[in-house]
Design a protein that fits this description.
Strand 3, helix 3 and strand 4 form a beta-alpha-beta unit. The strands form 2 sheets. Strands 1-6-5-2-3-4 form a 6-stranded parallel β-sheet, with helices on both faces. It has a 6-stranded parallel β-sheet with strand order 7-12-11-8-9-10, with helices on both faces. The protein is an alpha/beta fold. It has helices at 26-31, 55-66, 84-88, 105-114, 128-138, 155-183, 199-204, 228-240, 256-265, 279-288, 302-312, 328-343, 354-361; strands at residues 16-18, 36-39, 70-74, 93-96, 121-125, 141-145, 189-191, 209-212, 243-247, 268-270, 295-299, 315-319.
């Protein structure tokens, strides 16, 4: 799947932001089926024009390689000293210089040499105008980090790093914010209903939390009970080991009888959830000790359920509403949903194991 569509190919907005290369959730990237990690050099794996690679960075490279990733450095620099990384990693991390980013020609050749698919490749860098731009053009998954300044004493290099961040903020708060805003509406998967979701696959990928919307996701709008087939589904999911939370923006008085039934089933309910604001959900999950990378949110609305999941860092699944009967505000927002669906860029979905792919193709 090509993750960048439409205008996003030409707008250097990253799929993710991270403070540095060490803070990135590589485990999540692996779940999503990415196999290749490309990193810029200057201000990404080391300070600008500094050829000393830290032990911490080398350890990260080793962890990624042991975890099955192909790792390479792609830099516009012509310095031969950059190639010392190949020596330090016994040739496991390939280094490609004079890349001429954001031009795509040389990067395409790198992917061919690595035998990596564009849809399975991540590019990480500190410059939106080169690293993110070339990644978006090719349909790679792009991650923008802050310039590497650990242990940096040079005031000039600090100035260059600060200017890099300033330039991106100027771009983001003038043009880029709109495209970043659109990204929040994009789910990982579209399904017809909650019964079509592959929960076995979610469990295999170590997701432990399932958060469901209620109205028009589990039941028709303003019904106050669980359908028998939903109860059967929940029992199976509980038996598998999932923690289940129903999060609704409706008020407490509506769920008096349902809350008793849910308690008997061992399912949590959060009313007045204030979606897409995240603080109530985060507080609930913190009590149970769960992490964002373990969560999935399933709902029928882009502007509440999917936005909430994305700001929490959850895997998101958009289902079709069970009925056309909805509140006035929801009907109003459906109009904007249709517009948003034409603009959003696809997000990566969970990778299928090779054995699963063989079974599906047989």
């Amino acid at each position: 799947m090509n993750h960048t569509t439409g205008l996003f190919k030409y707008i250097p907005i990253p799929r993710e932001h991270s403070p540095d290369i060490y803070s990135i959730d590589y485990d999540r990237l692996k779940k999503l089926g990415f196999t290749t990690i490309l990193m810029d050099y200057d201000f990404t794996v080391t300070p600008w024009r500094d050829d000393q690679i830290s032990r911490k960075t080398l350890d990260l490279f080793e962890e990624l390689i042991n975890d099955g990733f192909k790792v390479a450095i792609v830099t516009n620099s012509k310095r031969e000293k950059v190639k010392s990384i190949e020596t330090l990693t016994n040739g496991k991390v390939k280094v490609y210089t004079s890349m001429k980013k954001p031009n795509t020609k040389k990067l395409k050749s790198v992917l061919e040499e690595l035998k990596s698919k564009e849809s399975e490749t991540v590019i990480i860098g500190d410059l939106f105008i080169t690293d993110i731009s070339v990644g978006n053009k090719l349909g790679l998954y792009t991650i923008l980090i802050n310039p590497y300044t650990y242990g940096l004493e040079s005031k000039f290099k600090h100035f260059v790093a600060g200017f890099t961040k300033f330039a991106y903020k100027m771009f983001f708060y003038t043009i880029g914010w709109f495209f970043r805003f659109i990204d929040l509406f994009s789910p990982n998967e579209f399904k017809k209903n909650v019964f079509e979701v592959d929960y076995d696959h979610l469990w295999e990928k170590r997701y432990k939390i399932l958060i469901f919307d209620f109205d028009n996701t589990l039941n028709e709008w303003h019904e106050n009970y669980l359908r028998p087939e939903v109860i059967d589904l929940f029992l199976k999911l509980k038996e598998k080991g999932f923690y289940i939370l129903i999060a609704s923006n409706s008020k407490k008085k509506r769920f008096k009888e349902l809350e008793i039934e849910l308690n008997d089933l061992g399912i949590d309910l959060l009313y007045s959830a204030m979606k897409p604001l995240r603080f109530k959900i985060r507080k609930k999950l913190k009590i149970h000790g769960y992490k964002p990378g373990e969560g999935v949110i399933i709902g029928d609305q882009l502007f509440t359920d999917i936005v909430l999941g994305n700001v929490l860092g959850f895997y998101t699944v958009k289902v079709e509403p069970l009925s056309k009967k909805e509140g006035l505000w929801t009907r109003f927002m459906r109009f904007f949903e249709k517009i948003a669906l034409k603009w959003i860029r696809e997000k990566p979905t969970l990778a299928k194991d090779q054995t699963e792919n063989l079974e599906n193709n047989s």
